[in-house]
Q: What sequence folds into this?
C-alpha cells in the first residue's frame, strides 16, 4: 500500500535539500574528478565494481567528493551500510555499530561497511575502539577526513587501510558539474527558463577553487536571487555570479599539509630562481592568513642555506625583512616580504656554507675530536711549542699556519657570484701554503680534494 503522506513528506524533504545535496551523482559514471583512482581500470573503481572494498581512508579538501563517493558505495554494495560523523557520535555509538556488525556477520554472514565522516575529530584513544574489529574484518571502515591521515589518524588504522587522496576538481570538471545541475529537470534547474552566461559559469568555476559544493551553492544563490516565478525567464550574468560568490575560499590549514606544502613550494621557487612563482606562493600564504613572521623566518634561513656567500648581501636583506615584518606587521610588511623574496630569488645561489657546517658537524660527531693546538689556546704565557703567528704582521695579511691539526676542506666555494672571488682567494692561499686543502671522504680525512689555480698575488 502506497503511503501518500510519506511520498509527500519525501518530496518536501527533497525540495528543502540544497542543490549540492540533490545533485549528488547516482553512479560512478556521474562522479566528477579523482580519475587517478576512479578512472577505468584504477584500483578503487575495480574494488567498487567487484563489491570487494576493503577499509579505506578518503583524504582531501572539502567539496571534492569524499562523502558523495561513500553514498555511492552505500547505494551499490550488498553489505549493510552504516553512517556516522565523528563530530556527532561518541564511543558508545561506535560500539553499538560494531556489536551489531559482529552479530550480523555471525548470524547471517553479512558484511558491514561503516562510513565515519570527519574521523580526525576522534582522538587516538577513540579511534582505537575501531582497531580490533577492523583488523578482524568484522567491519569495513570508510573514514573521511580533510586532515592528513598520517598525522590525524591512528597509525595502526592507517596501516590497515588504503589511503586515497582526493584532489581539488579542475575548472573543467566544476563547469561540468554546474552544467549538469542547470540541465537536470528532476534535481536541478532543468524545469526553469534559465540562462547562465558562459562568463558567469567560468567565474563560479574559478572562484570555487576546485570545490564542487561551493560552486553549486553559489549557482543556487544566483538562480534563487533572480527568480521571480516558475515561468519567468532567469538570466544569471557575470555580475550576478560575482555577487553570489564574492570571496574565494583558500583551502589552507596553518598546522596541516597546505601550510607545509606552500612554504616548501615557496622555498624551492626561490632556490630555483623563479621570482614569479615565489611571489605567487608568498601571496597565497598571506591571503590564507599565514603568520608573516613564519615566512620571514624561512626567508632568513634560506638566505644562508641557498644563497650564502654567492651574494653575502642576501642575509642582510633577509635580516632587514625579518626586523621590519616584526615591527610593522600586516598589511604593509607584505611589500617588504615581496622585496626580500624577489631579491633572493634573483640572487646567485650557493649552498656551500650549508654543506660546510653539515660536513664539519658530522666530523665532530663521528670522528676523533681535534684538540685545540697549543699556540691557538687562550692561556698565556706559552713556554713550549710553536708560537702563534699574527697574520696582520705580514705584508699580505696571511701567514702559513695550521689552525686545526689536520688538512681538511669542509668549505668548497662555487664559481657563482661573490663566491667566485672567495674561490680565487682560497686558491691563492693554497699557493702560499704549497699544500691544497683536502675534502674529507667518509671514514677518512686523507681523501685529496681538487687543487685550484695558484695566483702569486691575493685577489682584491
A:
Amino acid at each position: 500500500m502506497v503511503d501518500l503522506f510519506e511520498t509527500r513528506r519525501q518530496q518536501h524533504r527533497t525540495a528543502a535539500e540544497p542543490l549540492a545535496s540533490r545533485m549528488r551523482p547516482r553512479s560512478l559514471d556521474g562522479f566528477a574528478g579523482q580519475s587517478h583512482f576512479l578512472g577505468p581500470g584504477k584500483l578503487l573503481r575495480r574494488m567498487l565494481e567487484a563489491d570487494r572494498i576493503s577499509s579505506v581512508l578518503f583524504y582531501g579538501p572539502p567539496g571534492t567528493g569524499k562523502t558523495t563517493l561513500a553514498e555511492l558505495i552505500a547505494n551499490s554494495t550488498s553489505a549493510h551500510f552504516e553512517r556516522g560523523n565523528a563530530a556527532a557520535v561518541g564511543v558508545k555509538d561506535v560500539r553499538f555499530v560494531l556489536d551489531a556488525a559482529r552479530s550480523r556477520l555471525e548470524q547471517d554472514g553479512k558484511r558491514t561497511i561503516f562510513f565515519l565522516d570527519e574521523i580526525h575529530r576522534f582522538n587516538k584513544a577513540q579511534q582505537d575502539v575501531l582497531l580490533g574489529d577492523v583488523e578482524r574484518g568484522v567491519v569495513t571502515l570508510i573514514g573521511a577526513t580533510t586532515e592528513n591521515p598520517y598525522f590525524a589518524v591512528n597509525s595502526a588504522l592507517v596501516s590497515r587501510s588504503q589511503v586515497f587522496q582526493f584532489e581539488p576538481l579542475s575548472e573543467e570538471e566544476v563547469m561540468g558539474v554546474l552544467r549538469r545541475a542547470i540541465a537536470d529537470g528532476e534535481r536541478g534547474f532543468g524545469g526553469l527558463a534559465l540562462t547562465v552566461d558562459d562568463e558567469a559559469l567560468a567565474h563560479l568555476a574559478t572562484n570555487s577553487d576546485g570545490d564542487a559544493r561551493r560552486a553549486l551553492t553559489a549557482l543556487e544563490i544566483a538562480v534563487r536571487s533572480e527568480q521571480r516565478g516558475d515561468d519567468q525567464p532567469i538570466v544569471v550574468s557575470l555580475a550576478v555570479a560575482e555577487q553570489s560568490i564574492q570571496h574565494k575560499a583558500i583551502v589552507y590549514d596553518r598546522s596541516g599539509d597546505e601550510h607545509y606544502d606552500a612554504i616548501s613550494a615557496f622555498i624551492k621557487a626561490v632556490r630555483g630562481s623563479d621570482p614569479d612563482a615565489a611571489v605567487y606562493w608568498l601571496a597565497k600564504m598571506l591571503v590564507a592568513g599565514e603568520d608573516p613572521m613564519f615566512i620571514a623566518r624561512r626567508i632568513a634561513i634560506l638566505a644562508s642555506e641557498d644563497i650564502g656567500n654567492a651574494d653575502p648581501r642576501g642575509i642582510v636583506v633577509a635580516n632587514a625583512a625579518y626586523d621590519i615584518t616584526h615591527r610593522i606587521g600586516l598589511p604593509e610588511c607584505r611589500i617588504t616580504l615581496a622585496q626580500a623574496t624577489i631579491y633572493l630569488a634573483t640572487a646567485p645561489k650557493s649552498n656551500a656554507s650549508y654543506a660546510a657546517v653539515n660536513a664539519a658537524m658530522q666530523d665532530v660527531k663521528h670522528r676523533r675530536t681535534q684538540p685545540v693546538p697549543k699556540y691557538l689556546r687562550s692561556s698565556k704565557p706559552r713556554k713550549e711549542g710553536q708560537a702563534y703567528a699574527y697574520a696582520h704582521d705580514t705584508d699580505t695579511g696571511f701567514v702559513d699556519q695550521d689552525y686545526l691539526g689536520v688538512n681538511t676542506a669542509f668549505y668548497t666555494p662555487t664559481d657563482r657570484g661573490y663566491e667566485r672571488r672567495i674561490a680565487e682567494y682560497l686558491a691563492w692561499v693554497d699557493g702560499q701554503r704549497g699544500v691544497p686543502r683536502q675534502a674529507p671522504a667518509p671514514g677518512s680525512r686523507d681523501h685529496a680534494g681538487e687543487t685550484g689555480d695558484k695566483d702569486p698575488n691575493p685577489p682584491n
In short: The chain has 20 helices and seven strands. The radius of gyration is 32 Å. The longest strand covers residues 80-85. Confidence is low (pLDDT under 50) at residues 442-460.
